[in-house]
Specification:
The chain is mainly alpha-helical and 206 residues long. 68% of the residues lie in helices and 0% in strands. It is built from 9 helices and no strands. The two termini are 26 Å apart.
């Protein structure tokens, strides 16, 4: 993390083997599933299509991931790792001068992320399809959003803002609203960036 300003304030326990320990076949399965799940939805894509795209048998898929539900969780964990790596790179490039600038940079990075993720937020998309609260992917989805909120809280505290919990709630709603609105409002990340800047400018200090 850049100067320890962006840090994982909440770590989600991983029940699955981390991606770096996958076999080559496992990597192909996860890569194929990630592409198909994001493009078509986690419910619409069957294990036959994933196995065919990964050039493995269904037995290999089940041997490695146990079930389609656990593969969905692995897909979202991998997407979360990519999101964190992207934020690290963005902050390194933008070099924010302080915690308030880190918050602004998190919003500024969102527009570039969405240029490569034009079907919206993979976590929100999956949460809509996965109604069962005990689905293996739900802790990953909830944890990703909680991490984002916790980071807003941490940066707001460092910046000396008052009522940091309320501020973090509002920032998270702006951030998530931009993700949800992107497909029908491509300028949503830019609007959210301006709104976040206005919110910070008018927020009381501790």
């Amino acid at each position: 993390m850049v100067d320890q300003q962006l840090r994982p304030a909440l770590l989600v326990e991983r029940a699955l083997v981390p991606a770096e320990r996958l076999t080559p076949a496992g990597e192909r399965i996860l890569s194929a599933a990630s592409t198909l799940f994001y493009a078509y939805g986690v419910r619409a894509v069957g294990v036959d299509a994933i196995a065919d795209a990964a050039e493995v048998t269904k037995k290999t898929l089940y041997d490695r991931f146990g079930s389609k539900d656990r593969l969905i969780a692995a897909y979202l964990e991998e997407r979360n790792r990519q999101w964190h790596a992207f934020l690290d790179a963005q902050l390194a490039r933008r070099a924010p001068s302080g915690p308030e600038d880190v918050i602004v940079a998190l919003f500024a990075a969102l527009g570039e992320w969405m240029e490569e993720s034009q079907r919206g937020c993979g976590f929100i998309n999956a949460s809509i399809e996965l109604a069962a609260p005990d689905h293996p992917a739900m802790p990953v989805i909830v944890g990703q959003k909680q991490w984002m909120r916790a980071e807003f809280v941490a940066q707001a505290e460092l910046a000396g803002f008052a009522e940091v919990e309320e501020l973090a709630d509002r920032l998270l709603l702006l951030h998530e609203g931009a993700l949800v609105s992107y497909r029908v409002m491509p300028q949503a990340p830019e609007v959210a960036l301006r709104a976040a800047g206005d919110l910070l400018a008018g927020w009381p200090r501790a």
